[in-house]
Automatic annotation (TrEMBL), chain A:
Subcellular location, principal: membrane
Protein name: ABC transporter permease
Annotated GO biological process: transmembrane transport
Classification via InterPro entries: MetI-like, MetI-like_sf
Assigned GO CC terms: plasma membrane
PANTHER family, A to Z: ABC TRANSPORTER PERMEASE PROTEIN (PTHR43163:SF9), DIPEPTIDE TRANSPORT SYSTEM PERMEASE PROTEIN DPPB-RELATED (PTHR43163)
Lineage: Bacteria, Bacillati, Actinomycetota, Actinomycetes, Micrococcales
Transport listed as a keyword: yes
Compartments, as annotated in UniProt: Cell membrane
Topology relative to the membrane: Multi-pass membrane protein
Residues annotated as transmembrane: 95-119, 131-152, 172-190, 197-216, 228-246, 253-269, 281-302, 309-327, 370-388, 428-454, 474-499
Automatic annotation (TrEMBL), chain B:
Compositionally biased spans, kind Basic and acidic residues: 314-330
Ranges that cross the membrane: 45-67, 114-137, 149-168, 174-193, 225-246, 281-300
Taxonomic source organism: Oerskovia douganii
Compartment(s): Cell inner membrane; Cell membrane
Name this protein carries in UniProt: Oligopeptide transport system permease protein OppC
UniProt domain ABC transmembrane type-1: residue ranges: 110-300
InterPro entries: BP-dependent_transpt_permease, MetI-like, MetI-like_sf, OppC_N
């Protein structure tokens, strides 16, 4: 194991060296540092060109310059972007965080939704829902990322901000939204005519009711979840999570999940006063760990022969409830945020990664980050979503045709257990190996999204420096991306070996 | 797109399906079977028609080279802006702020994209086949060298290398730019071809050819390549749609096609600020990018269905019923032995 990792790391280092060497030569051949001077009418143009040639050391062959750069790089000196005079390490600092925020959020959401839709689609192969999914994933596959991003910017941001000026939906909008969601749920659940009709009616009523409630309670201008919504959604989710993880017949798991909902609600008001204290992400992380621990403890206290299953259901529910309490707190800042002079009633941002001169505490800043992340994340999710849907659909189809699935059915397991325990888990194996590699593609996609939304991320840094003929920032970006890609490949191999016992890493 | 799920008593339905399958391909060559299956995929046929229409429209309207075509404007010709540039009878797609005709520009952009798509396809196809075939056929040291080379290119997202190469190409010649992009996009194809060749070289007909004294080149090109053609065609098609998206994205970022040449991505980049006041400047180039990419993807899907009989369509209820009728006249004693295909 250890020798495998060290061997792969060494090979990766070699690849990194060769690839940076090749890229250095390519970049230095493609950039045009004199473009602005060549077009100028300045009388001392030639002198300036000579000066810049001196500054950039262009009389030295590129191969030698590479080794000079490499020498500096390994000693920790990333160089200076010569146009701005800023050290590259300063340029990278904010950019890396901004890009990580974007890519992390997008990956998580795209995986959750893509896998969910893909699996439902595979389970109902050749149904209308399946055909619809395939068609939608085709369309999403064919959409240029920058076009989607510009559309989102126009409709998502400007449209929604206009909507917030006078937030009311016409009855027509409510009916249409209800119809669409009702139809989708109907197609996804399927079954007999009666079951379809029931699903449709429930989904339609729930959607229309929710929109009406939001409108009547002035929710758009003063959004909150509040204890009541948390109780209702929490209970519903407790049932759903238990149904998926252990089946509703397991009364102990259900009881454990419901207990965590009650605990969450009981802590709702005490937590509000805790939130008023100075807060940071470290506290959030700590509270999240406490939540998981409480969930597991509750599961074990409910006891029974299968403590682990109860603990799993309870801790999942606990995380969801805690997440809702967190979102509720962030939402409660909404009126204050909307009213801030820097926002001026148009909360969904189209550029940048934070509002300048906003001020405010941790919660306001968090909300601000979210409003800036919303649209770029959505743009990235739309692109990734299609890929994950396809992967998980084909992977699930393959798994469900295996003999062990037939064995599981033949020995009389309930369908839930066949799908969740035998189907779903094995579906995740090929997916787990795709995710690390896909993150690299996502980093590439982030270049476009960052450019459209003017986020000061690594992609923007790369494109701006490349066009501005600054080789040092470009090389820093390339090293980071290539190193991540090599690591991702190693991680993918390790995950595969860990999940699939037929594969050995030290072979 | 009906909602019925196929009957699940698989043993009998599988034989029935097989019978339908055999009945349909009886006495046809491989090429005819593929063509038939392709034309049965309605989405792919529609996509093919639309794509041909787009290609014809783009070529004939503004012409190629010195031929100006039947359209009255040229892409870079400025004129008086009529009615704020809104679409009207003379300018069906509208005009930009300099009075240039958007239809002519979109057509030129489409030409650029099509040229780049073709060049990328050809280069990536050639590279992919050569590298994949050599690697899979010779294995050993050749294989590990070529695959390390492939890995080197895969280390970076294509858009990153594409950006550097796009800048290197200067961006005024679509063919040069396309050739550079082709040099970035071949690795996935090479890996697939390699995989296919690794399994093909163990087959008997390859041994037979070798025993008969065929040279390596002959075995690769005459015996193995025709058997890998399905994988190659399908994946090249899918590569074409990613090529067109890559080209437009790079042009949008300003590191692809450069002015005064016209690209659909560059148009969107130029006009995105005008979205609120002149939406047609933004919609038409986008519609053509999506249209071409969607058509190519659908054609690829149709080809995959045509070449890969494992992913066959579930036969319709009517066909199943007809197959049962064929089966019925000769009920056998055991009940599960089916008549020979074509016996009735």
């Amino acid at each position: 194991m250890f020798s495998f990792i060290s061997r792969r790391l060494l090979a990766g280092l070699g690849t990194l060296l060769v690839s940076t060497f090749a890229m250095y030569l390519l970049v230095s051949a493609s950039i045009r540092p004199f473009e602005d001077l060549e077009q100028s009418t300045n009388p001392n143009k030639l002198e300036q060109i000579a000066q810049r040639r001196e500054l950039l050391d262009l009389d030295t062959p590129a191969v030698i310059r590479y080794f000079k750069w490499l020498g500096d790089f390994v000693t920790g000196d990333l160089g200076v972007g010569w146009r701005s005079g800023q050290p590259v390490s300063n340029m990278l600092q904010g950019a890396v965080i901004s890009t990580i925020q974007l890519v992390a959020a997008a990956t998580v959401i795209a995986i959750l939704f893509g896998v969910m839709v893909g699996i439902v689609s595979a389970l109902r192969q050749y149904s209308t829902f399946d055909y619809l999914t395939i068609f939608v994933s085709f369309v999403l596959y064919s959409l240029p990322a920058f076009w989607v991003a510009v559309l989102l910017k126009q409709w998502g941001a400007i449209g929604f901000n206009d909507f917030l000026k006078d937030p009311s939906n016409s009855p027509l909008v409510i009916v249409v939204a209800g119809l669409v969601i009702g139809l989708l749920c109907m197609l996804a659940v399927g079954g007999t005519v009666k079951r379809r009709a029931t699903t449709f009616a429930i989904a339609f009523a729930a959607t229309a009711g929710a929109i009406l409630y939001l409108q009547l309670s002035n929710w758009w201008l003063d959004p909150n979840l509040g204890p009541v919504i948390i109780l209702v959604t929490g209970t519903a989710l407790a049932f759903a999570i238990t149904a998926l993880t252990s089946g509703l017949k397991n009364r102990r798991a259900l009881g454990a999940s419901l207990t965590t909902v009650v605990i969450g609600l009981a802590l709702y008001y005490p937590l509000q006063s805790l939130f008023r204290m100075p807060f940071s992400w470290m506290y959030v992380l700590g509270l999240a760990l406490v939540t998981v621990a409480v969930g597991i403890a509750v599961g074990y206290l409910w006891g029974g022969p299968d403590k682990g299953i109860s603990a799993r259901a309870a801790s999942l529910t606990a995380v969801v409830v805690a997440g809702m309490i967190f979102i509720d707190k962030v939402m409660s800042l909404w009126p204050q945020y909307m009213g801030a002079p820097a926002i001026n009633g148009r909360p969904i941002a189209t550029i940048g990664s934070s509002t300048p001169n906003l001020g405010g505490n941790f919660w306001v800043q968090t909300l601000d980050t979210y409003t800036h992340l919303l649209l770029p994340t959505l743009a990235l999710v739309l692109i990734q979503f299609a890929g994950y849907t396809r992967y998980s659909r084909s992977s699930m189809l393959e798994v469900m045709n295996q003999d062990y699935i037939r064995t599981a059915r033949a020995k009389g397991l309930p369908e839930r257990e066949v799908i969740m325990r035998h189907g779903f888990r094995n579906t995740l194996i090929p997916l787990a190996t795709i995710v690390p590699i896909d993150v690299i593609t996502l980093l590439g996609g982030a270049i476009i999204t960052e450019q459209v939304f003017a986020r000061p991320g690594m992609g923007t840094l790369f494109i701006r420096s490349l066009r501005g003929a600054e080789i040092e920032p470009v090389m820093a970006y390339l090293v980071i991306v290539a190193a991540l890609a090599i690591l991702a490949n190693i991680v993918a191999d390790l995950i595969y070996a860990a999940l699939d016992p037929r594969i050995r890493v030290n072979a | 797109m009906s909602n019925q799920t196929p009957p699940n008593d698989s043993a009998s339905s599988a034989t029935v399906e097989n019978q339908i399958e055999l009945k349909e391909v009886e006495g046809l060559s491989q090429g005819q079977i593929v063509r038939r299956r392709f034309f049965r995929h309605k989405g792919a046929v529609v996509a093919l028609v639309v794509l041909v229409a787009i290609v014809l429209l783009a070529i004939t309207s503004i012409g190629v080279g010195s031929w100006t075509g039947w359209w009255k404007f040229t892409p870079n010709e400025t004129g008086t802006v009529i009615d704020g540039g809104a679409p009207n009878a003379t300018h069906p797609f509208g005009q930009d702020e300099a009075g240039r005709d958007i239809f002519a520009r979109v057509m030129r952009g489409t030409q650029t994209s099509l040229v780049i798509m073709t060049t990328v396809g050809l280069i990536a196809l050639a590279m992919g086949i050569v590298v994949g075939a050599l690697s899979g056929y010779f294995r050993g040291r050749t294989d590990s060298f070529l695959m390390r080379f492939t890995d080197l290119i895969i280390t970076m997202p294509v858009i990153v290398i594409g950006a550097v190469l796009g800048l290197l190409s200067g961006g005024d010649n679509a063919i040069v730019f396309g050739a550079f992009l082709g040099l970035v996009l071949w690795p996935p194809l090479a890996r697939l071809v390699r995989g296919e060749f690794l399994s093909l070289r163990e087959r008997e007909f390859v041994d037979a050819a070798r025993v008969a004294g065929a040279s390596s080149g002959r075995i690769i090109f005459k015996h193995m390549l025709p058997n890998a053609v399905g994988v190659i065609i399908v994946n090249t098609t899918l590569l074409l749609s990613s090529a067109i998206l890559l080209e437009t994205s790079l042009s949008y970022l300003g590191v692809g096609i450069q002015r005064p040449a016209v690209s659909l991505g560059l148009m969107i980049s130029d006009y995105q600020e005008a979205f609120a006041s002149r939406p047609w400047l933004f919609w038409w180039p986008g519609a053509f990018i999506v249209g071409i990419a969607l058509c190519v993807n659908f054609i690829g899907d149709g080809l995959r269905d045509a070449f890969d009989p494992r992913q066959k369509n579930i036969p319709s209820e009517r066909k199943m019923a007809r197959a049962k009728r064929i089966e019925r006249p000769k009920p056998s004693a055991t009940g599960d032995a089916l008549p020979e295909p074509g016996a009735s």
